């Protein structure tokens, strides 16, 4: 009997919503954990007796359950804050409940010897922007001149050394932490990659509060979103310079710029594959620039990056099918 696919995500994940029926159509059974409803809507049991372990997860609203020995593939998508049965937990009770839940859940999941897209350990190891830049350089990519520092003096010196403009980029999330606080506590909703102005340079002492990331601004012919799914490459060419709203940061989806499929040079294709595989990832999305001179420049790697919007703009990519194909194939071969 073929094994099942376990999806670990949240209840707002449209990617998972669309992949589940594709897996079902391939005769692949699926169990989904929505972390924003966990553990409130779930029961877990990890039992060690007679030198053996057994593990089960049950979804209380539906009664569906899975024996983790039945899992052949895991798709880890997006995190979320845990939800608990009691809504009136004190701050300390909630902190303790979160720590215990994390230990219980991942102490259970990490026992799985199966196919992962991708393993949480690999995801965490691949998320650090400074390390990404260093690794990309060692693999032959050009990277922008960059600095991460909480020293205003270092930033001023770096600005003097750069020919042209400087940009500020968030290291963790362009949401500026807005996703981690209640609505009433939000003072800003985000910050795109931004060219540093003279006025900003005059306020540079604020850098001493927290380490900040600055890069030289590299002029673009176009940008690339290179999504790698189980060794398959989907390279999207973004005509970001066609609209001033996306000239500096292509993530402004209010601008209807052209996305089209493109073919990477063999050496760039191989470099992207080796970069992603070096982390042990089975999925990742890389952002690159192609300069007016035709040089390929590495910007960053997104080990859990979104891909649905790219497929919607380039329907021939069929990335949802690529995910479903690999998960179902890996589950089927672990009988």
From TrEMBL:
Keywords: Ligase
Residues covered by the MvdD-like pre-ATP grasp domain: 4-119
Presence of the UniProt keyword Ligase in the record: yes
Cited InterPro entries: MvdD-like_ATPgrasp
GO molecular function terms listed in the Swiss-Prot or TrEMBL record: ribosomal S6-glutamic acid ligase activity
Pfam families: ATPgraspMvdD (PF21068)
Gene Ontology CC entries for this record: cytoplasm
Gene3D superfamilies on file: ATP-grasp fold, B domain (3.30.470.20)
GO BP of this protein: SOS response
Protein name, UniProt field: Glutathione synthase/RimK-type ligase-like ATP-grasp enzyme
Source organism (scientific name): Pseudoduganella violacea
């Amino acid at each position: 009997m073929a094994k099942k696919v376990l999806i670990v995500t949240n209840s707002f994940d449209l990617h998972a919503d669309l992949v589940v029926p594709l897996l079902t159509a391939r005769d692949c059974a699926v169990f989904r954990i929505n972390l924003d409803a966990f553990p409130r809507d779930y029961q877990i049991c990890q039992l060690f007796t007679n030198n053996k372990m057994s593990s089960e997860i049950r979804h209380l609203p539906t009664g569906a359950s899975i024996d983790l020995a039945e899992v052949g593939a895991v798709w880890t998508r997006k995190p979320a804050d845990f939800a608990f049965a009691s809504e009136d937990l004190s701050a300390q009770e909630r902190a303790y409940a979160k720590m215990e839940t994390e230990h219980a859940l991942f102490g259970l999941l990490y026992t799985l010897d199966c196919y992962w897209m991708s393993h949480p350990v690999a995801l965490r190891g691949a998320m650090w922007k400074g390390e990404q830049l260093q690794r990309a350089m060692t693999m032959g990519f050009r990277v922008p001149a960059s600095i991460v520092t909480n020293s205003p003096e270092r930033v001023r010196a770096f600005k003097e050394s750069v020919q042209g403009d400087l940009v500020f980029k968030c290291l963790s999330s362009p949401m500026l932490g807005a996703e981690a606080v209640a609505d009433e506590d939000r003072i800003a909703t985000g910050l795109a990659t931004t060219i540093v102005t003279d006025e900003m340079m005059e306020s540079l002492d604020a850098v001493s509060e927290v380490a900040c990331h600055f890069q030289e601004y590299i002029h673009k012919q176009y940008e690339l979103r290179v999504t790698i799914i189980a060794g398959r490459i989907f390279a999207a060419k973004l005509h970001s310079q066609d609209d001033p709203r996306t000239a500096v940061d292509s993530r402004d989806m209010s601008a209807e710029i052209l996305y089209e499929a493109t073919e990477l040079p063999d050496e760039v294709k191989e470099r992207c594959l080796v970069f992603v595989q070096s982390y042990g990832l089975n999925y990742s999305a890389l952002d690159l620039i192609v300069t007016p001179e035709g040089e390929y420049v590495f910007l960053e790697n997104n080990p859990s990056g979104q891909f649905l919007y790219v497929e919607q703009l380039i329907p021939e990519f069929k990335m949802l099918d690529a995910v479903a194909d690999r998960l179902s194939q890996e589950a089927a071969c672990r009988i």
